[in-house]
Structure formats: structure tokens, C-alpha cells
């Protein structure tokens, strides 16, 4: 496939591997991804409900519905990613998110809000995720963990910056100006670099993906989706996903209300959430520099253990330092999970059909994420506390740790 003109012009003049340019494009697109993130939407909840009289539940439902739609579309988008490369998928994702969030400034009804936000959230959870990690995994093998960790950190920086962008715009022009600012930021930061510089894979331009040098380096796996689904590793990684992502979403959303119910001041609860976020960023960056000779399943095991310990520790929180420790441990688990799981899918099954394989797994992931907050809320309403939900989440994380231990990389002979 012919690369973009600017990429063809730039590539021969670079004194370093072109994959680092691809990583820079992915980082910018990942920063821009957060337009429809929950943290951004939270800035708009109060002014929009005041203007329209909508309930908080009505607005929150758009987040879950968008995730369900992503579960439907991801298996369809995955094979297109493998055929056409990440450039088309990622650029369409940036355009979709940017234009939809800008158009939210025009809504006059709940139906219009659902139409636009559910679309943006669907793209955020499905095609955008596939495009980002598809691009990275096509260009990086030996340094895959490092590349993914840097890209994950860029996404987290967008999660910090875009709510601030929205809030600053809203200060002078109201919530409608806030959505325009968010959408414009998505388009300006995310689109042009990806459109002008992304190349499908190094083999298209006569390069080879970075590899561990030496005659003893293992050959890269090459699984089709059908072949991958015949391996125990595919189903074990899928089971790990189903077990661990309700924990990730359920505890993250309800962490602050639980701490307040335990008698901590709101500012203390907010500080614990800040520690949780900071530790997530530290872990997501740090695990990228683990030696590649260490099995990635051991990292997934550690992530699940940290999530389990953090969930159980939150149950008995009674003081500020307890909340900081529990939140920090949980955050370390989240950051490790978000970086290592995309790496595991690529390491186990290769680059050739990554989109098709990851598309199936991503459907399970977004459905599991949607189930976590609902489960936590139902158990809280039925028992009056978050204790039972945290016990359930800690148990799920413990089971996920056992599954990770069993999820060994499949033999390459099973490929195709």
C-alpha cells in the first residue's frame, strides 16, 4: 500500500527508525481521543441538566449505550484495520469524535444528545482503540511495551487536559462553547499528523519491524482470527478480560462515594482519587520498560493481584492514609492492565490479523466495563454500602490472576 506523500518524502531523510514518527502520531491521536471520555462529560453534567432538566441517569445512560454499540461494531472494524492499516481507521475515528463533540454544542433535546454522544462514545471505545494499538503493534515488536506505555501516558494526559480546556471555554461562553472547544482540540491535535504521516506497516516501505536481534530470536507469530480462536490462550485472555474489566470500571466510578460513606471528607476522597490517577500513570509508563524476556502474563498476573488487593483494602478504609494506600495500589493495577493487555494480544498472535482478533476481544472488554458500574450500583442500593460490591470485585480480580497464570503464549506451529 502506497504511503502518504509527506511520509515518503520524510522517511529517507530520517536518521532513526520511522516507527518513532508513528508513535508520535499515535500519541497525538491518543491525547485527542478523550473528547467523549467520562471525565470530560462530567464537566458538562451540571450545566446541561440545569438547562434541560435531564436526570443524571439519563446522561449516564449514553455512556453505557455507546459501549454496547462499540461491542457490536468492533469485530467488523478489526478486519478492515488488517486490510487497510491504522491510518484510515484512526483518521475516521478522529474525525468522528471531533465532529460529533463539536455538534453537541447544537443539541436541543435528549434524543439529539444520545445520537451524537453515543456515536462519539462508540468510536472512542471501538475503532479508536483498534486504530491506536493497531498502528503501534504493526511497527513495534521488540520495543512494543515501551511504545504502548508512552502512548498510554499520552492518552492519560489528554484525560487531564481536555476537561480543563472545556472548563476554560465554558467560563466565557457556556457549555455550548465548551463542546466546540473540545471538538476543535480533537481535530487540531489528532487528525493532520495521522493523515499525513501514518504508514500501514514497515514492510510497505521496505523496512522491517524492530526485532530482538540475534539468531536465537523467536519468529513472530502469524495467527488468523480463526486459528487464534482455536487456541486456549485466546479464551484465557478473553476470560481474563471479562473478569478484570468490571473491577476496573466498577471500583473507579464508585471509589469517591464509598470513601465519603466511610466517613472521609470529600476533599480526602478527591485526594485519594488523585493518588489513584497518579499511580495509574506511573504504572502505565513504568511497565513499558520491563525486560521483554519476562512473560507478559506475569505482568497481567501482577495487575490483577494489585486490583484485588486494592479492592479488598478499600473495604475497611477508616482514615486518609488507608484511602491513599488502597487507591494507589488499585491505580498501579489499572495502569499495568491498560498497557500490558494490548501488548499481550499482539505478542501472542502477531501483527497480521491483530485487528480481527483484538476486535472480538474488545467487544468483551467494553461489555465487561459497562457491567461493572451497574453491578456496583445495584449491590450498593440493595445492601446500603459498597462492601459487598468490593468483595465481589476483589474476588473477580483474584480469579483473573489465576487465569493470567494459565494464559501461556500459544505455540507458533498452531498459527494459520
Automatic annotation (TrEMBL):
<feature type="transmembrane region" description="Helical">
    <location>
        <begin position="113"/>
        <end position="135"/>
    </location>
</feature>
<feature type="transmembrane region" description="Helical">
    <location>
        <begin position="147"/>
        <end position="166"/>
    </location>
</feature>
<keyword id="KW-0472">Membrane</keyword>
<keyword id="KW-1133">Transmembrane helix</keyword>
<feature type="domain" description="Major facilitator superfamily (MFS) profile">
    <location>
        <begin position="22"/>
        <end position="412"/>
    </location>
</feature>
<feature type="transmembrane region" description="Helical">
    <location>
        <begin position="263"/>
        <end position="287"/>
    </location>
</feature>
<feature type="transmembrane region" description="Helical">
    <location>
        <begin position="325"/>
        <end position="348"/>
    </location>
</feature>
<feature type="transmembrane region" description="Helical">
    <location>
        <begin position="385"/>
        <end position="407"/>
    </location>
</feature>
<dbReference type="InterPro" id="IPR036259">
    <property type="entry name" value="MFS_trans_sf"/>
</dbReference>
<feature type="transmembrane region" description="Helical">
    <location>
        <begin position="58"/>
        <end position="81"/>
    </location>
</feature>
<protein>
    <submittedName>
        <fullName>MFS transporter</fullName>
    </submittedName>
</protein>
<feature type="transmembrane region" description="Helical">
    <location>
        <begin position="299"/>
        <end position="319"/>
    </location>
</feature>
<dbReference type="InterPro" id="IPR011701">
    <property type="entry name" value="MFS"/>
</dbReference>
<feature type="transmembrane region" description="Helical">
    <location>
        <begin position="232"/>
        <end position="251"/>
    </location>
</feature>
<dbReference type="InterPro" id="IPR050327">
    <property type="entry name" value="Proton-linked_MCT"/>
</dbReference>
<feature type="transmembrane region" description="Helical">
    <location>
        <begin position="178"/>
        <end position="198"/>
    </location>
</feature>
<dbReference type="InterPro" id="IPR020846">
    <property type="entry name" value="MFS_dom"/>
</dbReference>
<dbReference type="GO" id="GO:0022857">
    <property type="term" value="F:transmembrane transporter activity"/>
</dbReference>
<dbReference type="Pfam" id="PF07690">
    <property type="entry name" value="MFS_1"/>
</dbReference>
<feature type="transmembrane region" description="Helical">
    <location>
        <begin position="88"/>
        <end position="107"/>
    </location>
</feature>
<keyword id="KW-0812">Transmembrane</keyword>
<feature type="transmembrane region" description="Helical">
    <location>
        <begin position="360"/>
        <end position="379"/>
    </location>
</feature>
Amino acid at each position: 500500500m502506497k504511503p502518504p506523500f509527506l511520509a515518503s518524502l520524510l522517511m529517507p531523510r530520517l536518521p532513526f527508525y520511522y516507527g518513532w514518527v508513528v508513535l508520535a502520531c499515535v500519541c497525538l491521536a491518543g491525547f485527542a481521543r478523550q473528547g467523549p471520555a467520562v471525565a470530560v462529560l462530567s464537566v458538562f453534567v451540571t450545566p446541561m441538566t440545569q438547562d434541560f432538566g435531564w436526570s443524571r441517569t439519563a446522561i449516564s445512560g449514553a455512556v453505557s449505550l455507546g459501549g454496547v454499540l462499540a461491542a457490536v461494531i468492533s469485530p467488523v472494524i478489526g478486519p478492515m484495520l488488517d486490510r487497510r492499516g491504522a491510518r484510515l481507521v484512526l483518521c475516521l475515528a478522529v474525525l468522528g469524535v471531533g465532529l460529533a463533540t463539536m455538534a453537541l454544542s447544537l443539541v436541543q433535546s435528549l434524543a439529539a444528545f444520545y445520537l451524537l454522544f453515543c456515536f462519539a462514545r462508540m468510536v472512542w471505545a471501538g475503532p479508536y482503540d483498534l486504530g491506536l494499538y493497531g498502528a503501534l503493534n504493526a511497527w513495534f515488536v521488540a520495543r512494543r511495551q515501551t511504545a504502548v506505555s508512552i502512548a498510554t501516558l499520552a492518552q492519560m494526559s489528554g484525560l487531564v487536559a481536555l476537561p480543563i480546556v472545556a472548563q476554560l471555554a465554558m467560563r466565557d461562553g457556556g457549555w455550548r462553547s465548551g463542546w466546540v472547544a473540545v471538538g476543535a482540540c480533537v481535530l487540531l491535535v489528532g487528525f493532520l499528523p495521522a493523515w499525513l504521516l501514518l504508514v500501514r506497516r514497515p514492510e510497505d516501505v521496505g523496512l522491517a519491524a524492530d526485532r530482538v536481534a540475534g539468531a536465537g530470536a523467536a519468529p513472530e507469530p502469524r495467527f488468523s482470527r480463526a486459528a487464534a480462536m482455536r487456541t486456549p490462550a485466546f479464551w484465557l485472555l478473553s476470560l481474563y478480560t471479562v473478569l478484570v474489566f468490571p473491577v476496573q470500571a466498577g471500583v473507579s466510578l464508585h471509589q469517591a462515594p464509598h470513601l465519603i460513606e466511610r466517613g472521609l471528607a470529600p476533599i480526602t476522597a478527591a485526594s485519594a482519587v488523585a493518588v489513584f490517577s497518579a499511580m495509574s500513570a506511573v504504572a502505565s509508563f513504568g511497565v513499558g520498560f520491563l525486560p521483554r524476556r519476562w512473560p507478559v502474563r506475569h505482568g497481567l498476573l501482577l495487575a490483577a493481584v494489585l486490583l484485588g488487593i486494592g479492592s479488598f483494602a478499600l473495604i475497611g478504609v477508616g482514615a486518609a492514609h488507608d484511602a491513599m494506600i488502597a487507591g494507589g495500589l488499585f491505580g498501579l493495577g489499572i495502569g499495568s492492565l491498560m498497557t500490558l493487555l494490548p501488548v499481550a494480544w499482539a505478542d501472542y498472535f502477531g501483527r497480521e490479523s491483530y485487528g480481527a482478533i483484538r476486535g472480538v476481544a474488545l467487544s468483551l472488554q467494553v461489555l465487561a466495563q459497562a457491567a461493572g458500574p451497574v453491578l456496583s450500583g445495584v449491590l450498593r442500593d440493595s445492601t446500603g454500602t459498597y462492601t459487598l460490591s468490593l468483595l465481589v470485585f476483589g474476588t473477580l480480580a483474584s480469579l483473573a490472576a489465576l487465569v493470567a497464570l494459565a494464559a501461556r503464549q500459544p505455540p507458533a506451529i498452531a498459527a494459520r
